[in-house]
């Protein structure tokens, strides 16, 4: 299957809408571990992205990703801003100059994006962060691709692995940020960053699925 620039742009807009729908839930999760503003922060960033994309008329998916990353960074002052900005700019670099996206392009986009997050944040699996969602997801995505699966099956594998990674944070101690001061009190609480990461991934999958079924 091929994905056009307009379809790719719509996937980001759908992500913005999903984050907006779930912002209170994300902040509720954050109140148990941090300052309770993760949902608001993500909403501010993604609503800025949506507004920018509504106006953007370009045709280069690499440039689109750069616009998404820089808009999110400029709107969000917290730690998550540079992480997602790096992700989308790195991911967009592999799409530069293309007129439509192949299945392999989408795999490479997410691979580069997650590598960008890891390089910028230096987080590892088991530290109760969004990386606990993203790294298992990208491993599953690439393994499914190596096995010869379709893009939809690869994304489904990523979503399944990402969900398991997200849920695994419930039983983790926090190792990064403000929540690392909580010690055992962090146990039993799902990480909000891992949760918003899952929402982004799941929404992207659903957006691509709707393209395929159209």
Explain briefly what this protein structure is.
The protein has helices at residues 5-21, 23-31, 38-55, 61-75, 80-93, 103-121, 131-146, 151-168, 192-213, and strands at residues 3-4, 100-101. The protein is mainly α and 214 residues long.
Structure notes:
It is a single chain. With 214 residues, the chain is mainly alpha-helical. The chain has a single domain (3-213), classed as DhaL domain (Serine Threonine Protein Phosphatase 5, Tetratricopeptide repeat, Alpha Horseshoe), CATH 1.25.40. It has helices spanning 5-21, 23-31, 38-55, 61-75, 80-93, 103-121, 131-146, 151-168, 192-213; strands at 3-4, 100-101. A two-stranded antiparallel ribbon has the order 1-2. α2 (23-31) packs antiparallel against α9 (192-213) and α7 (131-146) runs antiparallel to α8 (151-168). The longest helix is centred in the last third of the chain and has 22 residues, at 192-213. It starts with a strand and ends with a helix. The model has no long low-confidence stretch (mean pLDDT 92).
CATH topology: Serine Threonine Protein Phosphatase 5, Tetratricopeptide repeat
Note the total helix count: 9
Distance between the termini: 12 Å
Integer count of domains: 1
Low-confidence stretches: none
Kindly provide the radius of gyration, computed on alpha-carbon positions and rounded to a whole number of angstroms: 16 Å
Largest sheet: 2 strands, antiparallel
The CATH fourth-level homologous superfamily: DhaL domain
Proportion of strand residues: under 5%
Q: How many E strands?
A: 2
> Which structural class do the helices and strands define?
mainly alpha
Q: What level of helicity do the residues show?
A: 55-70%
> How would you sum up the global shape?
globular
